[in-house]
Amino acid sequence: MLAPAMWIMTIIHFAAIPVGLFAFVHAVMQRADAFTAAEKLSKPAWLGITGGGTAALALFAFGGPGSLFWMAGMVAVLVYLVDVRPRVSDAQRGPRW
């Protein structure tokens, strides 16, 4: 039987992969000019960042020997979701009156 801490780490590990996939798919679906209008990196750059982050989340385990890569992937995906995604979405909507 797994300890409660191990269960939590397993849940976090497997919950992070869909989050990374969501960030990558969202970046794919956005217009390229929206990234520059939002004053962020280009669309190909964010596709690479979110794709690489998602790959790191899938390949390395949270709490395992590749934890540093897993954490870097999670930070990359979360930066996109928290900072870039809202700005890109706002840039595509246009000015609010």
Q: What portion of residues is helical? A: over 70%
The rounded Rg comes to 16 Å
User: Could you say how many structural domains there are in total?
Assistant: 1
* Main sheet: strands, sense, barrel: none
Percent of residues in beta strands?
under 5%
| Helix-strand pattern | HHHH
Number of helices: 4
Protein name: Na+/alanine symporter
Pfam families: DUF2516
Keywords: Membrane, Transmembrane, Transmembrane helix
Write out key terms for the chains shown.
single chain, about 100 residues, mainly alpha, 4 helices, elongated, DUF2516, Na+/alanine symporter, transmembrane helix, membrane, transmembrane
Report on the architecture of this protein.
- The chain is mainly α and 97 residues long.
- The chain is built from four helices and no strands.
- The protein is elongated.
- The model has no long low-confidence stretch (mean pLDDT 91).
- This is Na+/alanine symporter.
- It comes from Crossiella cryophila.
- Keywords: Membrane, Transmembrane, Transmembrane helix.
Summarize the structure.
The chain is an all-alpha fold and 97 residues long. Helices cover 78% and strands 0% of the residues.
